[in-house]
Amino acid sequence: MSATPLLELRGIDKSFGPVQVLRDVAFTAHPGEVTALVGDNGAGKSTLVKCISGIHPTDDGEFLFEGRPVSINSPRDAAALGIEVVYQDLALCDNLDIVQNMFLGREKRSGLVLDEPTMEQMAAETLAGLSVRTVKSLRQHVSSLSGGQRQTVAIAKAVLWNSKLVILDEPTAALGVAQTAQVLELVRRLADKGLAVVLISHNMNDVFAVSDRIAALYLGQMVAQVRTTDITHSQVVELITAGRSGNLGLVEAGAGSAGTATGSTDTTSGAVR
Ligand SMILES: Nc1ncnc2c1ncn2[C@@H]1O[C@H](COP(=O)(O)OP(=O)(O)O)[C@@H](O)[C@H]1O
Ligand SMILES: [Mg+2]
């Protein structure tokens, strides 16, 4: 575990027109760790991820990457830093095979033609490096894969590009028990390889099974970011639903308390205020 976060956000504000969706948000992601990003529908999780991945410009705030200030103004900027997002709908093409999907839009060429042997080898090495053994042929169409296999391919696609930070939006939402376990193992392996992983999830079992830290968004405010070992299921549920739990989260409930959660993020005690 490293003391310097791979990614640190400070004071992020984001509005869509008159609606402020993110308010003074602080967030860190550490190499070798899984950070679960939790929050109710509409809390701002996807918006935060889209700010990190350069899809939405922020109104205010700072980004630090490996301790240095950076600006992320486009998905290209994010990719250049090694930030990859696996979106919930996966954006895989059913009518293409695994290799074609993994290299979609970033194909390797040899002169004018596609360099299929190189792409196939890189795809095979990436899947092997993630200890993925459930896929029979790299040349099978994605339409023939199970939900868990599709998620695996989408994750492998994200780590193919020497990524340092992989963000997964609800990767197990549509999966059964066995496939969920497989994907969570893969998530854990990504972190064990040294990547910083951000896992958006509604499933407390998944969050507690795999995360090192939990960051809770409530109505656009980061009300706590704590080590998973320092918090209970029911406390996380309270943070999600009420924005506070005991000494965690918003200092006062109700109107007028906006901005009371400072979101100090490198605490081991768990108190965030
Ligand atoms: N492009 C947009 N334009 C206007 N409002 C948006 C846009 N994207 C998200 N929102 C609003 O921002 C809030 C947070 O949404 P979102 O980030 O999707 O939450 P979550 O992913 O936590 O469910 C919601 O109230 C949503 O309606
Ligand atoms: Mg969302």
UniProtKB/TrEMBL annotation:
Gene3D superfamilies xrefs: P-loop containing nucleotide triphosphate hydrolases
Domain ABC transporter intervals: 7-244
Highest classification ranks of the organism: Bacteria, Bacillati, Actinomycetota, Actinomycetes, Micromonosporales
A GO MF term: ATP binding
InterPro entries in alphabetical order: AAA+_ATPase, ABC_carbohydrate_import_ATPase, ABC_transporter-like_ATP-bd, P-loop_NTPase
Claim: Nucleotide-binding is one of the keywords in the record: yes
Region called Disordered, residue ranges: 254-273
Name the UniProt record assigns to this protein: Monosaccharide ABC transporter ATP-binding protein, CUT2 family
One family name in Pfam for this protein: ABC_tran
Keyword vocabulary terms for this entry: ATP-binding, Nucleotide-binding
